[in-house]
UniProtKB/TrEMBL annotation:
Enzyme Commission number: 2.3.1.234
Keywords, comma-separated and alphabetical: Acyltransferase, Cytoplasm, Iron, Metal-binding, Transferase, tRNA processing
Molecular functions per Gene Ontology: iron ion binding; tRNA N(6)-L-threonylcarbamoyladenine synthase activity
Binding locations of substrate: L134, V135, S136, G137, G138, D167, G180, N276
A Pfam family annotated for this UniProt entry: TsaD
PROSITE patterns linked to this entry: GLYCOPROTEASE (PS01016)
Protein name according to UniProt: tRNA N6-adenosine threonylcarbamoyltransferase
Function statement: Required for the formation of a threonylcarbamoyl group on adenosine at position 37 (t(6)A37) in tRNAs that read codons beginning with adenine. Is involved in the transfer of the threonylcarbamoyl moiety of threonylcarbamoyl-AMP (TC-AMP) to the N6 group of A37, together with TsaE and TsaB. TsaD likely plays a direct catalytic role in this reaction.
Gene3D superfamilies: 3.30.420.40
Length: 346
């Protein structure tokens, strides 16, 4: 089964083609980073308009790369949520219209399920069951995964997501948008041990996270350094180092706890923050110590992309799932726990 996947939930227009027999056939992405950088964050209306501009050219690009035509498609999957309503509407409307015109089924896909199973696009792919750390711009969750659509929430952030905290801390340091990768780059110049930031909620049992306090801690540290006239380039790098170290350490502690609690030895990390080199290195170390394994997507499939949506679409459509004829509502908010295994819906 050959499925076209469309991702337009936020500020990346992603399109890809996935074949259940051959795997990923082609992939194209347009990032709106430059468009939103001037404003220091995503402007929803500008995002929607840009998806409209880029989507058809990207679909053409993907079909050409795979040397196929639209008549070779068996289905079209699109992100239906969670995300920005106007942005979602662009991908959903085009995906459903195109499928209807081609007389093939379409399918609404959950963006976080896309992230969650993106490590399965790599070789070797993780086997079920596993613990997943979903760390993105909008989510920080520990999930027990027994199979496709069998997800149990073990813990999540009670306030900011890890990616959001990275972006906000980066903004305080005038690093630009999106700040996560920029802060991580600056941290490589930092000195270990000059500042030590707190590891929120690690001193009590449980698997929830909180990152908003770290943001405040970062601001206070920067202000104090500035007042004392010591906020030079090295001090900024040292603050970036301490911030990243605290976030990574907190994530690592909770992953270890989740593995211990469930007795599982397989860990998957996914979502934008899973591109973070420090996080990958620390988790690789931990998992080798536990004689376990860690899996993550290549950096381009950590952040938003079409491949992860085409992948879920193909998995679920091959089991017989598809949209009904009524115009189904988009889900700007959509808990992952409302999903079920593909066969159950066939
Ligand atoms: P969600 O998937 O929760 O709806 P989103 O789609 O906006 O949110 P992603 O595209 O998965 O999020 O990830 C983007 C986030 O990842 C941003 O917050 C970005 O700063 C962060 N990020 C990307 N690369 C890195 C990195 N190397 N280190 C830290 N953070 C990073
Ligand atoms: Mg993005
Ligand atoms: Fe995302």
């Amino acid at each position: 089964m050959r499925v076209l996947g469309i991702e337009t939930s936020c500020d990346e227009t992603g399109v890809a083609l996935y074949d259940t027999a051959q795997g990923l056939l082609a992939d194209a992405l347009f990032s709106q980073i430059d468009l939103h950088a001037t404003y220091g964050g995503v402007v929803p209306e500008l995002a929607s308009r840009d998806h409209i501009r880029k989507l058809i050219p990207l679909i053409r690009e993907v079909m050409a790369k795979a040397n196929l035509t639209l008549s070779d498609l068996d289905g079209i999957a699109y992100t239906a949520g969670p995300g920005l309503i106007g942005a979602l509407l662009v991908g959903a409307t085009l995906g459903r219209s195109l499928a209807s015109g081609l007389n093939i089924p379409s399918l609404a896909v959950h963006h976080m399920e896309g992230h969650l199973l993106a490590p399965m696009l790599e070789t070797p792919a993780p086997d079920f069951p596993f613990i997943a750390l979903l760390v993105s711009g909008g989510h920080t969750q520990l999930v027990q995964v027994e199979g496709v659509g069998q997800y149990t929430l073990l813990g999540e952030s009670v306030d900011d997501a890890a990616g959001e905290a990275f972006d906000k801390a980066a903004k305080m340091m005038q690093l630009g948008y999106p700040g996560g990768p920029k802060l991580a780059a600056l941290a490589t110049q930092g000195t270990q041990g000059r500042f030590r930031f707190p590891r929120p909620m690690t001193d009590r049992p449980g698997l929830d996270f909180s990152f908003s306090g770290l943001k405040t801690h970062t601001l206070t540290t920067l202000k104090q350094l500035e007042t004392e006239g010591r906020l030079d380039e090295q001090a900024r790098a040292d603050v970036a180092f301490a911030f990243q170290d605290a976030v990574v350490d907190t994530l690592v502690i909770k992953c270890k706890r989740a593995l211990k609690q469930t007795g599982l030895k397989r860990l998957v990390i996914a979502g934008g923050v899973s591109a973070n080199v420090q996080l990958r290195e620390r988790l690789a170390e931990v998992m080798s110590g536990l004689q376990g394994e860690v899996f993550y997507p290549r950096p381009a499939y950590c952040t938003d992309n079409g491949a992860m949506i085409a992948h879920i679409g193909a998995l679920r459509m091959a089991a017989g799932e598809h949209d009904s004829n009524e115009l189904s509502a988009l889900r700007p908010r959509w808990p992952l726990w409302e999903l079920h295994p593909p066969a159950a819906n066939a």
